[in-house]
Specification:
InterPro entries: P-loop_NTPase (IPR027417). The protein is built from ten helices and 17 strands. Strand 15, helix 7 (about 275-285) and strand 16 (about 290-295) form a beta-alpha-beta unit. It folds into two domains: about 5-15 and about 140-355, P-loop containing nucleotide triphosphate hydrolases (Rossmann fold, 3-Layer(aba) Sandwich); about 30-135, Rossmann fold (3-Layer(aba) Sandwich). The two termini are about 30 Å apart. The strands form four sheets. The chain has an eight-stranded mixed sheet, with helices on both faces. Helix 2 (about 40-50) crosses helix 4 and helix 5 crosses helix 10 (about 340-355). The radius of gyration is 21 Å and the shape is globular. Helix content is about 30%, strand content about 20%. The protein is of the alpha/beta class.
Length: about 350
């Protein structure tokens, strides 16, 4: 509630305690299929060993370690056997992992030179170095942030999360990219960037790939580069730093169906009856999403009731902040842990929980 001691603590004492956090590399899960030879399996095992990542082989009864929140899935061109020997495709393996609350980045391999596919794949052993480079690359978080209903605060939390992912104390390297993928253009006003120089969506229209050096041409808010304005973002964002997509209110379809390739989806849920009921429906379509439950001022819904209606516990709670409305109305919201209020505290908790 407003004016509580906890609110004061969250507002002014939210720097992470203890040593800096380092993100654990995601393990590699293989599901190669019936047509994959033993030589191909050995080649992939060798590539994984070179990268230093853990190697897990998928099976229906696979129990993932508790610290695993994301995986690199390597699938073959054959059919994997599931329970009772039933055939399971690579996409179904990915769906199984997502249903366990794990984010998945998938790549296909084959040892057949005659194989053709519209999807990217690696031909082994010829492309073993390229596969090793792909698997060995650092795990850069790419997130999509949605609100379960309008007014949930998805844009505000997306900005706070971008700041948290850039923070060195939370495993960041001092920079991140915040992308307006909702088409609303709200980020300029939220962060007070209306008069800032730098490229907007319209200035890079038709650019298929945005690279790291191009971030210098964007407006910045603290350590966060911001890509906003009307239009669609580039298809690929090879910027070498965390990326947060502000997707606004959830409508329908997954981020990939909207053309956004992410390693994790975040759902901001206001602790109200409409917000939690809407979240329950959304989570049926996004079972692997991380939930941030936002305390609402003067809401009649108790915390435990919100958890019951939603059907699960959140990864982070976002406490009420009496200063937030004024800051966002004036364009004074700052995406840093020391300037983002209780949104920054919630983002810090989420980063520590899932990355």
């Amino acid at each position: 509630m407003l004016g509580t001691l906890q609110n004061f603590i969250d507002r002014f004492e939210r720097r992470p305690s203890g040593p800096p956090q380092y993100r654990t590399p995601a393990p590699v899960v293989t599901a190669l299929g019936d047509r994959s030879s033993e030589d191909l399996g050995s080649e992939i095992s060798l590539v994984i060993a070179v990268t230093g990542r853990r190697h897990l082989e998928w099976r229906p009864e696979l129990a993932l370690p508790r610290d695993v929140t994301s995986v690199l899935l390597v699938t073959g061109t054959g059919t994997v056997r599931g329970r009772d020997g039933a055939p399971v495709s690579g996409q179904e393996v990915a769906a199984d992992l997502v249903s366990r609350g794990v984010s998945v980045r998938q790549v296909t391999v084959t040892g057949d030179p005659s194989h053709t596919s519209p999807e990217p794949y690696y031909l082994l052993p010829a492309q073993a170095p390229e596969l090793a480079a792909y698997l060995g690359a650092s795990d850069v978080p790419v997130c999509a942030v949605y609100g379960s209903v309008g007014g949930a605060g998805a844009s505000t939390f997306a900005a706070a999360l971008a700041g948290a992912l850039a923070d060195p104390d939370l495993g960041g390297d001092g920079r991140s990219l915040l992308v307006d993928s909702s088409g609303n253009g709200d980020l300029e006003f939220l962060l007070g960037l209306e008069d800032s120089t730098g490229h907007r969506m319209r200035d890079i229209a038709g650019t298929p790939v945005l690279t790291g050096p191009a971030l210098r041409e964007l407006p910045w808010a603290a350590d966060v580069a911001v890509l906003t304005g009307s239009g669609a973002p580039p298809t690929r964002l090879d910027v070498g730093c965390p990326v947060v997509h502000d997707c606004g209110r959830w409508m329908c379809g997954s981020p990939s169906q909207a053309g956004i390739q992410v390693t994790r989806t975040v759902l901001v849920v206001p602790a109200t009856v409409p917000g939690t009921l809407a979240a329950r429906a959304v989570l049926e379509q996004l079972p692997g999403a991380s939930v941030v439950l936002r305390e609402m001022p003067r809401a009649e819904l108790e915390w435990n009731d919100a958890l019951t209606l939603m059907g699960r516990a959140p990864e982070a709670d976002w406490r009420d902040d009496p200063y937030l409305v004024g800051e966002t109305d004036r364009g004074e919201f700052t995406p840093t842990l020391s300037g983002a209020g209780t949104a920054g505290a919630a983002a810090s908790r989420l980063v520590r929980e899932v990355w």
